[in-house]
C-alpha cells in the first residue's frame, strides 16, 4: 500500500492542480544552509523578536525558577507600591510582592490554560471537521449545523456561559475557551478535507483497496492538516486574550495565585497611584499575543515563499 | 497641506488642559501641605442647583425595605423617607423626628410613639397613627420580600391605633433593639399610594415618603434623579437647616469602577462620590477635595469560625488564629489611617462598645504554642497536620469592599507563618448564602453595619440563622439578655459581656473597622453621614 502512495505522491506529479499541502513546519529548513536561514531572519527583525520573546516566555511557564528566585506570594508591606527599580524590575503591588515574580509565575497558569484551550479546540475541531468532510451525508449535515450554531454565538460569551456552568478555576477557563474555538477549526478542517478527498492519490488509495480508516489517517489527515495547524498557532494568540479576559473577570485561579488577567484586574484600582501594576502584565500579554501572531504568519508558508 | 503646528484655539485649549492635569500632580507632590479636610466654605449656604453624586453600585431597588444593593440603595431611599426617630450621629442617642416622644415598657415588648402633627406624605395624605400601623402591617405581610425591615419584627403581635397621633406596637417576645430600629431607613414610613401597590412595583418607582426629596425617575444601572419636596418642615434637630432643602435636585449616577469614579470627580463631571478607595484617599485629600469620613458602627470586619467543622471546634485553634493575625500590619498596608484597628467585635462608634484591645494582641509565639498544645505539628511543607489532616481552612469572602482581597492575602501570609493554610473562596451574595446554609466553609470574612449592639444577635445567636454553628450557652444568654430589657445600663452590660465572650473564645476574630469615606468637590458643602455611617438626608447640602 505504501508503494502505491509514493507513486501518486505530490513529488511525482508536480503539475497536479490539487497538490497536497505540506506543512511549512515539516518542510521548512530542509533546503538551504545556515546562511540562507540567517538572511531570512535578518530581513525579518520582527520575527526574530517574536521568537526571542516566546523563547523567554515558555521557560517562564514551565520552570519559572529559571527566571526569578523571588517568591510571588511573599508579602513585604514595607515595600508596597514601589515603582520599577533595579531591585524590583516591574515594581511591587499593594502588598509589596514583586510584580516581576508574579508575572513570571503567572505565565505558568496563563500559558498552560492557553495550551489546553488550543488543544481542546484543535483536537475536537479537527475530528469533527475530518468526519464531516470525509463521511459527508447526514453526518456532515448534523456536525456542520452544530458548528453553525456555535459560530452564531460570540466566542467570549460562549466561554462565559460555559465557565459559569463548569465552575471557577484555570482548567475550566481553558476548556471553556477551547470549546469556543472548536467551530472555526472544524470549518477549516472540513474545507481542507473536501479539497483533498477527491485528489488522485486518495482515489488511488481507495481503488487499491485501502480501508477507509487507513485512507483517512494516512492520506487525508496529513495533507489537510496544514492550514489547521497555522490556524492553531493563530488561535494561540486569541486564546491568551480570552483566557486572560476570563481571569480578569475573576473566573480563573483564586487569589493569591497570580494569573496575567487577574494581575491586571487587581491593579486597576491602583491605576492612579501605581500604573505599573496593570501596565506591566498588560504589556506582557500584548507582546505574547503579537509574537504568537507573527510566528503563525511565518508558519503559513513564509519560508516557502521567501524571496 | 503642510503639517505645521499653529497654536490656534484648539492648541491653546490643549495646553491649558495639560496644565490643569498637572496641578493635582503638583499638589500631590507637596504631600501633607495641602490637606483640606474642611474646605473653605466661608460664604453662606445658597439655595438652588443640582448635586451630582457618584454611587459605586446600582441601587437595584430604592424601596427602603427591599433587597437593594445595601448602602448605595439606602443613600438614595434615605432621601425619600423619614423615620419615627433619629439617631444623632454625634451622641448615638435617639432624638425626635416624626415621633415627638416615645416610651418602651420595662419588659421591652410594648412601644408607644406620639407622632408629630402636620406631617404630610408627598402624595398629599397626612401622617397619622393609622399610617404607622399600615406600614408595619405591610412589612410583616411582605415578610421575606421586605428583607431589610422584617429582621426588626421578630415576635410582632400587632400595632394598635390609640388615637390620631398615638400608636402602640406590641411584641410577644422582648425586642429592646426596636427603638433604635425605628430610626433606620428600613423602617422609614411610606405613603398610602405606595402601600396600595404590590411590593414588586416599589423597586424602581412609586416610592412615596415624607422626606425632603421626591423621586423623579430611576433608570437602572444609570441614574436616580430626585427633586426637592416643597413645604418640608419636620427635619430632626441634628440638621443645621430646617425647612425645604437647599438643592433643587439630586442626581445619583451609577459609576461602578473606582478609578472612573475618582476621575469623574477630579475632572469636575460630578460633585461628590461615595466608596472612595483607600489608595485614592491621600491623592484626593492633598489636592483639595473635602473628605467626609465616619467609622461604621456595628460588627467590624472579622473572620468568623464555622464551629461545626472539627478543626475549629477546638477553641485553642481559634485563639491561635486570633493571635497570629497582625491587624495593625493589615491596616497599615492595605488601608489608610482613617480606618481603625479593631478594638472589639463592635466598632468604637457603636453604642455600648467596650475596649477589648488588651485581649487582641498579636503574638506569634503564643499562637504556635496553642497549636502545639492542640496537637497540630508542623508538616514537611510547613503546613501543620494532625492525624494525617492538614490545618487548611477554606475562607469565604465577598468583593463588596475593595481592599478585602488584599487584606485576606496578607492575612494568608501572616497565618502561613504559624503553619496554617488559608484557602480563599469568593462568591456572589446568593451563592454565599447557599454556602452558609450548607456549612461548607471554615472561616467567613465580613462585617455588618448597624448602630446598635443588637447586631451581634443577628450574627451570633443560635436562635437566628446561626450560619456559624456556634454553641455557647453563655453567649446566647447575653444576646437574649440585651434583647429582653429596656433598661439602658442593664442592656449595655449584656452587650459588653457578649463582646467579651466572642473575642475571648475567638468565635469571631476582629481585624479592622470599616470606615465610610465620601469625597466632595470644593464647590459642594454640607454633606454628612448619619449614625449608621450612610449618607444622611441632604437637607444641609448646597452647591456654590
TrEMBL record, chain A:
Organism of provenance: Sphaerisporangium album
Region: Disordered, residue numbers: 1-23
Keyword Membrane in annotation: yes
Gene Ontology annotations for the cellular component aspect, listed alphabetically: plasma membrane
PANTHER family cross-referenced by the UniProt entry: D,D-DIPEPTIDE TRANSPORT SYSTEM PERMEASE PROTEIN DDPC-RELATED (PTHR43386:SF1), OLIGOPEPTIDE TRANSPORT SYSTEM PERMEASE PROTEIN APPC (PTHR43386)
Family, per entry: Belongs to the binding-protein-dependent transport system permease family.
Record's bilayer topology term: Multi-pass membrane protein
Protein name as it appears in the record: ABC transporter permease
Domain ABC transmembrane type-1: 107-296
A Pfam family annotated for this UniProt entry: BPD_transp_1
Superkingdom of the organism of origin: Bacteria
Database matches in InterPro entries: BP-dependent_transpt_permease, MetI-like, MetI-like_sf
Transmembrane segment boundaries: 47-67, 113-135, 142-163, 169-189, 228-253, 273-292
Record keyword rRNA-binding present: no
GO BP annotation list: transmembrane transport
Compartment(s) where it occurs, according to its Swiss-Prot or TrEMBL record: Cell membrane
UniProt KW keywords: Cell membrane, Membrane, Transmembrane, Transmembrane helix, Transport
From TrEMBL, chain B:
PROSITE patterns: PROKAR_LIPOPROTEIN (PS51257)
KW Repressor (keyword) present: no
Keyword Signal assigned: yes
UniProt keyword annotations, A-Z: Signal
Transmembrane segments: none
UniProt-recorded Gene Ontology molecular function terms: peptide transmembrane transporter activity
GO biological process, one term: peptide transport
PANTHER family per UniProt: PERIPLASMIC BINDING COMPONENT OF ABC TRANSPORTER
Protein name: ABC transporter substrate-binding protein
Organism lineage string: Bacteria, Bacillati, Actinomycetota, Actinomycetes, Streptosporangiales
Amino acid at each position: 500500500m505504501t508503494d502505491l502512495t509514493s507513486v501518486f505522491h505530490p513529488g511525482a506529479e508536480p503539475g497536479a492542480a490539487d497538490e497536497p499541502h505540506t506543512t511549512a513546519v515539516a518542510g521548512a529548513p530542509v533546503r538551504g544552509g545556515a546562511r540562507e536561514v540567517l538572511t531570512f531572519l535578518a530581513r525579518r527583525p520582527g520575527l526574530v523578536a517574536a521568537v526571542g520573546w516566546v523563547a523567554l516566555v515558555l521557560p517562564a511557564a514551565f520552570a519559572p525558577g529559571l527566571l526569578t528566585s523571588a517568591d510571588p506570594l511573599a508579602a513585604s508591606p514595607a515595600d508596597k507600591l514601589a515603582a520599577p527599580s533595579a531591585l524590583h524590575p516591574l515594581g511591587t503591588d499593594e502588598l509589596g510582592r514583586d510584580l516581576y515574580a508574579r508575572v513570571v509565575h503567572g505565565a505558568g497558569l496563563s500559558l498552560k490554560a492557553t495550551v489546553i484551550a488550543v488543544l481542546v479546540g484543535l483536537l475536537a475541531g479537527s475530528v469533527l471537521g475530518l468526519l464531516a468532510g470525509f463521511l459527508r451525508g447526514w453526518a456532515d449535515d448534523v456536525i456542520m449545523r452544530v458548528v453553525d450554531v456555535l459560530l452564531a454565538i460570540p466566542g467570549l460569551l460562549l466561554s462565559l456561559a460555559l465557565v459559569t456552568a463548569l465552575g471557577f478555576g484555570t482548567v475550566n477557563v481553558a476548556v471553556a475557551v477551547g470549546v469556543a474555538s472548536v467551530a472555526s477549526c472544524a470549518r477549516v478542517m472540513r474545507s481542507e478535507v473536501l479539497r483533498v478527498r477527491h485528489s488522485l492519490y486518495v482515489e488511488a488509495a481507495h481503488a487499491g483497496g485501502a480501508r477507509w480508516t487507513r485512507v483517512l489517517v494516512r492520506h487525508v489527515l496529513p495533507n489537510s492538516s496544514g492550514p489547521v495547524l497555522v490556524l492553531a498557532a493563530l488561535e494561540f494568540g486569541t486564546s491568551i486574550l480570552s483566557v486572560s479576559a476570563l481571569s480578569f473577570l475573576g473566573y480563573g485561579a483564586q487569589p493569591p495565585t497570580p494569573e496575567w488577567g487577574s494581575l491586571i484586574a487587581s491593579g486597576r484600582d491602583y491605576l492612579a497611584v501605581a500604573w505599573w501594576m496593570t501596565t506591566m502584565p498588560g504589556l506582557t500579554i500584548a507582546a505574547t499575543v503579537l509574537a504568537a501572531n507573527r510566528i503563525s504568519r511565518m508558519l503559513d508558508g513564509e519560508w516557502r515563499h521567501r524571496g | 497641506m503642510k503639517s505645521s503646528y499653529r497654536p490656534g484655539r484648539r492648541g491653546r485649549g490643549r495646553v491649558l488642559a495639560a496644565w490643569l492635569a498637572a496641578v493635582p500632580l503638583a499638589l500631590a507632590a507637596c504631600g501633607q501641605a495641602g490637606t483640606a479636610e474642611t474646605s473653605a466654605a466661608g460664604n453662606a449656604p445658597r439655595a438652588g442647583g443640582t448635586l451630582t453624586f457618584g454611587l459605586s453600585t446600582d441601587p437595584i431597588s430604592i424601596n427602603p425595605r427591599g433587597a437593594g444593593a445595601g448602602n448605595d440603595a439606602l443613600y438614595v431611599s434615605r432621601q425619600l423617607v423619614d423615620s419615627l426617630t433619629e439617631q444623632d450621629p454625634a451622641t448615638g442617642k435617639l432624638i425626635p423626628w416624626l415621633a415627638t416622644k416615645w416610651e418602651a415598657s420595662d419588659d421591652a415588648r410594648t412601644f408607644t410613639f406620639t407622632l408629630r402633627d402636620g406631617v404630610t406624605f408627598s402624595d398629599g395624605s397626612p401622617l397619622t397613627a393609622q399610617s404607622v400601623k399600615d406600614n408595619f402591617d405591610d412589612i410583616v405581610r411582605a415578610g421575606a420580600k421586605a428583607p431589610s425591615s422584617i429582621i426588626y419584627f421578630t415576635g410582632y403581635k400587632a400595632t394598635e391605633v390609640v388615637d390620631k397621633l398615638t400608636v402602640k406596637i406590641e411584641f410577644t417576645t422582648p425586642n429592646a433593639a426596636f427603638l433604635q430600629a425605628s430610626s433606620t431607613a428600613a423602617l422609614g414610613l411610606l405613603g398610602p399610594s405606595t402601600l396600595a401597590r404590590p411590593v414588586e412595583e416599589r423597586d424602581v418607582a412609586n416610592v412615596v415618603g415624607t422626606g425632603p426629596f421626591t423621586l423623579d425617575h430611576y433608570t437602572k444601572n444609570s441614574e436616580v434623579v430626585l427633586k426637592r419636596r416643597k413645604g418640608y418642615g419636620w427635619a430632626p434637630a441634628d440638621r443645621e437647616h430646617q425647612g425645604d432643602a437647599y438643592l433643587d435636585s439630586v442626581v445619583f449616577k451609577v459609576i461602578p469602577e473606582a478609578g472612573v469614579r475618582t476621575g469623574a470627580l477630579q475632572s469636575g463631571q460630578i460633585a461628590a462620590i461615595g466608596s472612595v478607595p483607600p489608595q485614592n484617599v491621600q491623592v484626593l485629600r492633598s489636592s483639595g477635595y473635602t473628605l467626609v469620613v465616619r467609622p461604621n458602627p456595628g460588627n467590624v470586619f472579622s473572620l468568623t469560625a464555622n464551629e461545626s467543622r472539627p478543626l475549629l471546634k477546638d477553641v485553642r485553634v481559634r485563639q491561635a488564629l486570633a493571635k497570629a493575625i497582625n491587624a495593625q500590619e493589615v491596616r497599615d498596608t492595605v488601608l489608610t489611617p482613617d480606618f481603625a484597628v479593631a478594638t472589639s467585635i463592635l466598632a468604637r462608634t457603636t453604642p455600648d462598645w467596650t475596649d477589648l484591645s488588651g485581649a487582641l494582641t498579636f503574638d506569634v509565639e503564643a499562637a504556635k504554642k496553642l497549636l502545639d498544645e492542640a496537637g497540630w505539628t508542623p508538616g514537611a511543607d510547613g503546613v501543620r497536620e494532625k492525624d494525617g489532616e492538614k490545618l487548611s481552612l477554606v475562607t469565604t469572602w465577598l468583593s463588596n469592599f475593595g481592599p478585602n482581597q488584599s487584606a485576606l492575602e496578607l492575612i494568608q501570609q501572616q497565618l502561613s507563618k504559624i503553619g496554617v493554610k488559608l484557602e480563599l473562596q469568593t462568591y456572589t451574595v446568593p451563592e454565599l448564602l447557599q454556602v452558609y446554609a450548607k456549612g461548607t466553609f471554615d472561616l467567613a470574612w465580613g462585617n455588618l453595619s448597624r448602630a446598635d449592639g443588637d447586631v451581634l444577635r443577628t450574627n451570633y445567636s443560635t436562635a437566628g440563622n446561626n450560619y456559624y454553628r456556634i454553641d455557647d450557652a453563655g453567649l446566647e444568654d447575653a444576646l437574649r439578655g440585651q434583647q429582653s430589657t429596656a433598661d439602658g445600663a442593664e442592656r449595655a452590660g449584656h452587650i459588653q459581656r457578649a463582646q467579651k465572650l466572642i473575642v475571648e473564645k475567638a468565635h469571631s476574630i476582629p481585624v479592622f473597622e470599616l470606615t465610610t469615606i465620601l469625597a466632595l468637590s470644593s464647590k459642594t458643602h454640607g454633606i454628612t453621614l448619619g449614625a449608621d455611617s450612610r449618607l444622611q438626608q441632604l437637607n444641609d447640602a448646597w452647591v456654590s
